[in-house]
Write a structure and sequence with these properties.
The protein is an alpha/beta fold. Helices cover about 20% and strands about 15% of the residues. The protein is built from 4 helices and 7 strands. The protein is globular, with a radius of gyration of 18 Å.
């Protein structure tokens, strides 16, 4: 929700429409973008068995406090699967501080995640979490082009914080439903 003032626009009472669409949001399934384009998507039930080496939760794209809370809810009382690296980095210093104050950072660390200050490192293979040849990552970042997070023969899958957190626990691309959530 916005903290800024905004104007809400509503249709005129006598408005006429060419078509009307009703979308039941409860029927929507999480979507994962497969390599190497953000629009190369599949719903979670069509992903298959995709083992991952790394999870990146955060960035300027999905590093809001709401995203951190979702990831923490899934990771609380669970552990990152052995052999999987999980990096958490909030979008801003303010969100980072809020994660500390709300106890989210503690949840992440207890689950086995590496928690970083806000940075532009993992998204673009600059530092932290650089992928080696053949490695796969699921990330809440915004791009998954060839070589985006490291070696040109690595793969980056894009997903929501909920899917990324669940995947950290299972070691493969998974929805929260696989954890009973």
């Amino acid at each position: 929700h916005s903290t800024k003032e905004f104007t809400e626009y509503s249709p005129d009472e006598d408005a006429v429409y060419d078509e009307e669409y009703t979308i039941d949001l409860s029927e929507l399934k999480p979507t994962v973008a497969f390599p190497h384009l953000p629009e190369n998507t599949k719903t979670i039930d069509n992903v298959g068995d995709v083992k991952i080496d790394q999870v990146v939760i955060g960035s300027c794209t999905n590093g809001r406090i709401e995203d951190m809370r979702i990831a923490a809810k899934i990771l609380e009382g669970r552990e990152v699967k052995k052999g999987v690296r999980c990096i958490i980095f909030p979008a801003t210093q303010a969100v980072y501080l809020q994660c500390i104050e709300e106890g989210l950072a503690s949840i992440f660390i207890k689950a086995g995640c590496a928690v970083s200050t806000p940075t532009c490192g993992p998204c673009l293979g600059g530092h932290m979490g650089i992928l080696a040849k053949g490695e796969r990552a699921i990330a809440t970042t915004n791009r998954n082009f060839v070589g985006r997070m490291g070696d040109p023969e690595s793969e980056v899958y894009l997903a929501s914080p909920a899917v990324a957190a669940a995947s950290a626990v299972t070691g493969k691309i998974s929805g929260p439903e696989e954890l009973g959530l």
